[in-house]
Design a protein that fits this description.
By secondary structure, this protein is an alpha/beta fold. It is built from 8 helices and 12 strands.
Length: 248
Amino acid sequence: MERVKHPQRLGDRLNDPDVRDASFVVLFDGWVDDLERLHASLRAHASGDWELVVVDNPVDDAASERIAALDRVVHIPLRDHLGWAAGRNLGLRQATGRLAVVVDTSVEMLGDPMTPLDGALADPAIGVVGRWGVHTPDGFDFTESDGPDVDGVEAYLMAMRRATLHEAGLFDPKFRWYRNADIDFSFQVRAAGYRTIVDASLPVRRHAHRLWGSTPPEERDTASARNFGRFRKHWGERKELFTALDGG
């Protein structure tokens, strides 16, 4: 399989007209069975015209061949490894859906996600909607929250209008590890004047997160702490963004 050596040469489709209803954007770091489970659940349940954009970090050629064989997939097999945020950004730049849905391969659809996502994002005040979110009163302590308004939406599943990315921007590419990259992005969206919400009724299931489980504890703790420092540097002084929501 020929792999993409210069992903920047693929161009940027963010300014192109919407071609389909939704683009589900995945960064593949291994565990092709999980990706195939996600794909099968989208085929079974997702309504409308959708695509699955797979940014394929080099893991093994056999897995890449299996990904390439899936239908409704935009497959980007990379020669060199990209970090979490840069990989997601590449996928978002290649997306053509009216909605851009960042999703993890640990997620499985149990019903149609499009109707509730479309319904939420029909409200122009909402910038991001997802299933799982967090609340923080001070930017240090975080608790899970079913919202609806949350301080951060977790990237297991986070959906937005592709047009919102023009105002809010993409993920900070310095986040090579995933922890806190989604919360940082959520604050970016909120700083642009949008709400970030959770819909606890979204018909999705979260399975084991393989990347977390397979990474040595010391390595993931170091990377998570580094990312938390980036988050604090970006937003630590923006007190108005720490909403201290009641019942979060």
